[in-house]
Amino acid sequence: MSNLFQPITVGGLALGNRIAISPMCQYSAEEGLAQSWHLIHIGGMMMSGAGLVIMEATAPEAAGRITHGCLGLYNDAHEEKLREIVTETRKLSSSRIGIQLSHAGRRASCRSVRDRWRGESLPPEEGAWQTWAPSALAYDDSWHCPAEMNADALARVRRAFKDSAERADRAGFDLLEIHGAHGYLLHQFLSPVTNRRRDLYGGDVVKCMRFPLEVAQAIREVWPADKALGFRMNSSDYHPDGLTLDDAVTLARELEAIGIDYVVMSAGNLAPGCKIPPATPGHQVEYAARIKSETGLTAMAVGLIVEPEQAEEIITSGKADMVAIARAALDNPRWPMHAAAALGVDMEYPPQYIRARPNNWTGFPIVHPNAREIKATRQMDRPSSGSWDRPEVVTITDS
C-alpha cells in the first residue's frame, strides 16, 4: 500500500490522497477577474488525480495584486466568476479545490510575465498604483517606495482579508490558504528585514507577528470549521538578519492556537541579497519535518518534490503529512496519476481518458517503464448523478 495515496482529513476536509497542487500565479486575469485560461488550467489540474488543487494567489484588495494580471476577490464580479470555476471544475473529479489569499504589499504594482516581466516595478505610464507595507522601504533601489501602513490601512487590509474569505466560502471553495511567505505583505510584517516599526506591530518577534495573526484570526472567525484553513510561511529568509526556523516554529504554535489547520513550509524570496542555497530535491522538506514534530498542525512539504518515490518516502518516513507540487504539475498535468502507477496504485481516471489508464493501454509500460504492474480492473462509466464509481475488479482477456 502506498502511504502517499492514503486519505487524510485536514481540519474538517477529507482528501482522497496526500498530493496537493500548489497555488501558481497565471498572470492572466483582467481587472482581477478570472478568465477562460483559469477555467482550463484549473480544470486540467482537477483531473490530475491530486487530492487537492489550490488556485493561485488572489488579492483581497486591488492594491494587493502583484500585477495587472493577478486575480482578485474583492467585488461581486470576482466572486461570481470564481463560483463558476468552482462549480464547473468540481464536476470533473472528486478532487477538492482551494484558493490562496495574498496581499503583495511592497511587491505589488510590478510587470507581469505577460508584459516582459523582469522583476520590475511598474512606471506611472503603465498604470502603477500606491503600494503599502509595514515600513516605507522599497524592494530595491529601482522600485517604488511603499507607504507605511497606519491604523486605518491596517484596519482596511484586515477587513479586506476577512471579506475575501467570506466571498471564497460563498464561491464554494473547500480550503483557504493565507499567504505569509515569499516577501509578500504578511511576511513583510513578520521579518525584521522589512519591518522597522516601533509600535505594536514591530520590534520584537511577538510584535512582528501581531498583524499576520490578526489577519489569521479574522479569517478563522468566518471560515467554516468543516472546511480547511492553512497558512504558508517562510521557514528561513536566508538572510543574516531575517527569520529562522525557530521563529517559524514560534509562529506555527501561535497559528495552531488560533485554530489554523495546516501550514506549508516554504523559504526565501524576501529581498534582494538573500543568499538562497541551490535548490536540490526536497531541499525544504526538513522544515515541514520540524513543524510536524513540534506542533499538532498538518504539515505540507514543498521544494523540488518531483519523483513519486521521493514523495512516498516523505510521507512514509513521517517528515510531512502532505506534499505540494507546482512546476512538476505544469510539466506533467497527470503527475499524480503517473505517480500512482509508479507506486502500484490503481487510480480512477475520467471516463473520457480511460483508454490511457495503465491497465487499459498496452503502450503505458513503454512510455512509463518504471511503473509497477497493476491488477487488471475495469472502471465503470460515471452515473447520471455525476459521482464517480470506484473501479470494479474484473478479469480482462484478449478477444
From TrEMBL:
The keyword Oxidoreductase applies. It comes from Flavimaribacter sediminis. The keyword NADP applies. Keywords: Flavoprotein, FMN, NADP, Oxidoreductase. GO terms for molecular function: FMN binding; NADP binding; NADPH dehydrogenase activity. Transmembrane segments: none annotated. Its cofactor is FMN. PANTHER family: NADPH DEHYDROGENASE C23G7.10C-RELATED. This is NADH:flavin oxidoreductase/NADH oxidase. It comes from the Bacteria. Residues 3-340 form the NADH:flavin oxidoreductase/NADH oxidase N-terminal domain. Residues 377-399 are annotated as: Disordered.
